[in-house]
Structure formats: C-alpha cells, structure tokens
Amino acid sequence: MTRRRLIALLLCLTPVAAQIKPLTILHSNDLHAHLVPDDRNNGGFARLATEVRRQKARCQACLYLNAGDLVQGTPVSTLFHGSPIYEIANLLGFDVATLGNHEFDYGWRRTQEFMRIARFPIVSANIVDADGKTMTRPYVIQTVGGIRVGIIGAILGDLVGTVITQESAGPWRILPVVETVRKYAQEIRDRTDLIVVLAHIHDETEVDAILHQVPEVSVVVAGHSHVGYRTMMNVDGRVAVLVRAYGDQLGRLDLKVDMAAKKVLSAEWTKIPINSKIPPAPDVAAVVAKWESKVSKQVDIPIGESTARLDSRSPQLRKMIERAMAEETGADIAWVNGGNIRDTLPKGQVLIRHVWNILPFDNYIVMGKFRGSDIPPSITERYPVDPDREYTVATTDFTATNQSASDQLNSSALRFPRTGPLQRDAVIDWIKKKKVVP
C-alpha cells in the first residue's frame, strides 16, 4: 500500500473511530441501610465504598448510580428515621440517585430532608404536586468522557395508595412511569448523547415497557426487586440492569457508545461481589461505627437461639412470625404479607438486632373477628377455616390499611378494631419465651 493510500484510509477511519466512546456505569439499589456486613460477612457500606473507588479508578469514563431505597431496614435507620444513612451515603461516591418507595416511610417531609442532606443529585420525574411541579429535579445531564449522559429518574407508578399511604405522600401524586419517561426523553434527546433511566420501578412491567416503548432510552438502571437480574435485559440493543439488594453486589455496566447514532453499540454487565476480600474504607467505617454505637446497647442483646438459617423469603420464617403474633395476642390466625419480612434469621444466637432487621417497620398488630366464610383466600389457602366459625385474625396495621394492594389481603371489607403491641416487640417477647426457634 502506498503512503498516499494509507493516509487516505486513515482519514476515512478516524472520524468513525472517534464516534465510539466508552462509558462505565457502576450501580446499586435497595441498600436499605445495611451498614454492616450480614451474617455471612457479605456487604457493608465501608466495603462497598472501597470497591466503588477501586472501580472508578479503573474507568476511563465512569458514573455511579443508585436506584432507590437507601433507607429502612436496620436499627440506625429505624431509630433515626433514615437521616444518618444519607449522611453516610455522601461518602459512597454516588454521582446520581433516585428515590425509592421506602424513602417515604417516615413521611414526605423526611423525604425532603434526605434531599437536603444529600450532596449528590437526586432525580425523579413522576413525583409531582397539584400544579405539576416535580418534587426533585426530573433529570440531570452529566458529561463524562466527552459523552453527554441524560439521567431521568422515576418511581413506581402505583406508589401512592398501594405501596405507601396518601398520608406518607402528603401533597404529592405519581404520574405514569412510561409516559413521563417518554416526555423527558424527547425533551433532552437533542442535548444528550445517551439517555439513562434511573428508576425504582416494577421490573416485569415498567422496565420492560420502557425498553419496548421509549426508543430514546438506551439504558435502564433499576431498583425495587431485591433478587436482581440473572442476566442483563436487552431489547434491540437497549439494556436494563439490576443487582441484588442490601449491598452485597455492585453492578458494572461497560458500554461502547455510538456518538453519531446516540445508541449503545455494545454492553457487558458484571456483578461484583462485596465480601470479606474487600477491605473497608476507613472513613466510611468510622462514620458507620459512630452511628452503630448509638444503637448497640439497645439491639445487640441475645434473646434466644435459632436451629436454622431462614432467609426473608422462607415460608418457615413467615410462619414463625405469624405464630409469634398469634400467640402473643391470643389470635386464632395471624397473617402477614411477604413484603413485611425483610431479612434473614441467622442460625445460632439471635439478637434483638436480628428481629429489628427482619421487621424494621414500626408496624402495630391489629385484630378483628370474622366468620370463616368472610376471610379471604389469601389467608385461608394457608390456614384452612370452618366457614361457620368465628375467628380472631391478627395482621399489621399497614396491611390492614392497604388490604386491596397486591400481595396484601386482596380485600377491602375486613375491619380490625383492636390494636395490639408493636409487631417487632411481640416477636422479640415470643422468642425470649421460646428460647429456641423456629
């Protein structure tokens, strides 16, 4: 090949090559205030911080995104209503975060306090007031490695009335997810090279709908499901990712971005385990220790022994919680929805802390009397009843208030006029009496 031909070839190829740029998105979701490692020594905010910093140091162009539910799940969050978790999160290196449904557990005013504490942008496009003004900024555009990345936030479309109460939401209402994302994606497409949706939403419906119905969106970084995806979702080159909850995984999505076409040319997804091989970041560990010391005397108290390790999805753990509620209140039947139980009962010594982690919500037990024929199938399929007999049924005040929601009682007719103890306290007292569980 002559020198002239070589130069001509290079001139042709260079503009094309220059249009392909790398972008790495680190991501987490549903950390739920799990500041310290779990019973298998996985996770912990200090280790997560170390790995984020290590990965960022290896990125040519990198963003770290968090997809909601940062709070609610451990004693520090429950006792101090989430604020310390946002203080610690400022050290994790989030570039952008979005709100999850549990950011509203302490009321909408506390949600606004979280946004005040955060030293990172929080985006959510579909939480609006009566005038249509968004609670947070709907999106941000950040330039990373020469790529203008538009990041649109979103939260569950059925948030108010099914997932949280109107009282918790206050003056805020929720717009449909897909329509709202489409609106903002079209608004920012001329000012961006890549559009990412950072969303705490239903993965089987809302994530899938965005990938299929909003072609301007190239990436969805999702939260809400605690299980995480086995593999990256991919619809015509548009991708979605979600890792396990509680910070025992960090997601890394490596993209090649076609700048001219404004789309993802290739995507590789890795789930990085956060385990004992990772040293804790000293600065984060120090702040975690400060807050944990404030609750340790109250929760690090032995109350019994467990003969088996039962994770949060174990039918045996759910049955144990319901048994404790029934026996502590004198009810014939106790019933809780699956989402009420949030963490693992470890094998061996059981601390008050473990029960707080399993039942972090300040839910009270409520009771009512019903004929067997009036008790809905969601209960009777697990606890068969005589249709002509009267039964005292116990559940939580949250479940009683949200009876018609998915995974709840699927009824709106049951009335629970009697209020008993805090659910968490009842279970702690029951374990103390039993000494050995389940």
What does it look like?
With about 450 residues, the chain is α/β, with parallel strands linked by helices. It has 2 domains: about 15-290, Metallo-dependent phosphatases (Purple Acid Phosphatase, chain A, domain 2), CATH 3.60.21.10; about 300-435, 5'-nucleotidase,  domain 2. Helix content is about 35%, strand content about 25%. The chain has helices spanning about 5-20, 45-55, 75-80, 85-90, 110-115, 160-165, 165-170, 175-190, 205-215, 280-295, 295-300, 315-330, 350-360, 375-380, 395-400, 425-435, and strands at about 20-30, 60-65, 95-100, 120-125, 125-130, 140-145, 145-155, 175, 195-200, 220-225, 235, 240, 250-260, 265-275, 300-305, 335, 350, 365-370, 390-395, 420, 435. The strands form 5 sheets. A 6-stranded mixed beta sheet has the order 4-3-2-1-13-14. A 6-stranded mixed beta sheet has the order 6-7-9-10-12-11, covered by helices on one side. A 4-stranded mixed beta sheet has the order 16-19-18-20. A hairpin with a 2-residue loop joins strand 6 (about 140-145) and strand 7 (about 145-155). The longest helix is centred in the first third of the chain and has 16 residues, at about 5-20. The mean pLDDT is about 95.
Summarize the entry for a quick read.
The chain is of the alpha/beta class. It has 2 domains: 17-292, Metallo-dependent phosphatases (Purple Acid Phosphatase, chain A, domain 2); 300-437, 5'-nucleotidase,  domain 2.
